[in-house]
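Exercise 7. Given the components listed, write out the predicted structure of the assembled complex. Treat all entries as one system.
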Amino acid sequence: MADTPDPRVTRSREAILTAARELLVQEGPAAVTHQHVAARAGVGRATVYRHWPQPGTLLGDAMAGVRMPFFREPVPPMRPWLKQQLRSLADELDLPDVRAVTAALVQGVADAGRREQLAEAIGNRLGAALAKAQETGELRLAIDPRDAAALVIGPLFYRSMLELGPVSEAMIDRLVDTLGTWTGPAHTPV
Amino acid sequence: MADTPDPRVTRSREAILTAARELLVQEGPAAVTHQHVAARAGVGRATVYRHWPQPGTLLGDAMAGVRMPFFREPVPPMRPWLKQQLRSLADELDLPDVRAVTAALVQGVADAGRREQLAEAIGNRLGAALAKAQETGELRLAIDPRDAAALVIGPLFYRSMLELGPVSEAMIDRLVDTLGTWTGPAHTPV
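Answer.
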C-alpha cells in the first residue's frame, strides 16, 4: 500500500495549510474554521474535511507552522526560550486586535472546542519545554506541571484582559522563577 | 447647611443600594447599570442618577456591602485572609454563571469602564492587604506591588476561562508564596 501521493492532493493540502496559517496570524485562532479556510484556499469545504476530518487537527497543523509564542518546538536552553516566549506573548496580548480575538475566544460558547484546543496546545508545548529543562538538569520544578500554564500565562492574560497594560521584564523574570529553581548553563551537565 | 436628610431620600437611596447588591450577587458586576438598578428598586432612573451621578461609584458602593472575594476589608493576619479570598474567588470562577459574567465583562467594549473599575477595586483591596502585611512584618514583599493582582489572580482567571477546571490547595499556596516571604504568626512582633 505504498501510495505515491497524487500531486493534486498535495497541492490542495498545501493551499489549505497556507490559508489556515494566514487566517491564524491575521485574525486569530477563532477564524480557523473549515468554512473560512476553504473560501480562502479556493477549494470546496468537502476537500478541507477530506484532509482534516477533525476541525481541531487543522488548527493544530496550522499552528505548527506559524511563528507565534509557544507554537514552535522548544529550543534549549529552556530558560531564555521561555522568557522569550512569554515576552512575545505579553507583547502580542498588548495589541488591541489580539486582545479582541482572545476575548472573543474566551467568551465564545460556540467556540468552546477551539478554546480548549488552544489551552491544550499551549499547555502541551509548555509542558514539553519544562520536561526537557528537567531532563537536562536546567530546572528543578517546584510546582505541579499541570498548573504551569495557569501560573505563567495567567498573569499575562489578566494584565492584558483586565488591567489593559504592558508587562515589565521584572514580571517576566518573576513568572519564570515561580516554576522552580533554575541552574545557569554553566551548571548544565556536559 | 447642616441638612437633616429627607427620610424619603434615605429610603430611595437604601432601596437602590439593596437592588444594586442583589444584581451584583445574582448577575455579576456587568448587570449593575443605572437602568437595571432603577427597575429593580422600583424608582425612576433619574433618581438613581441623582444619588450616583457617576455609574462607577454605584458599583463601588454596592461591592462594599457584598460578601464577595476581595470586596470586604482585609482582616489580619493577612496570609490566611488572602488564601481564603483566593479560594473563594477560584470557587466562584468555577461556577458556569460567574464564568459567563466574567467573560462578558472581559469582552464588553461598551463595558470598558466597568472592567477597569473591577480590576481597580480588586487591585486596591489586594494592595491594602499587602501593605498591612508588610507593616506588621508578616510579609517581606518580593514583587512590584502593581503586579500583585496579575500574579495571584491571573492564574485563577486563566484556569477558569481557558482551562475550565478547579484550583487545588497547592496552587493557592503557591500563589500566596509567590508574593514574597511570609513569617508565621509566631514571628509577628508582639
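Discussion: Chain B has two domains: 7-64, 78-182. The interface with chain A takes residues 103-104, 106-107, 115-116, 118-119, 123, 143-144, 147, 149-151, 153-159, 161-164, 168, 170-171, 174-175, 178 of chain B (CB under 8 Å).
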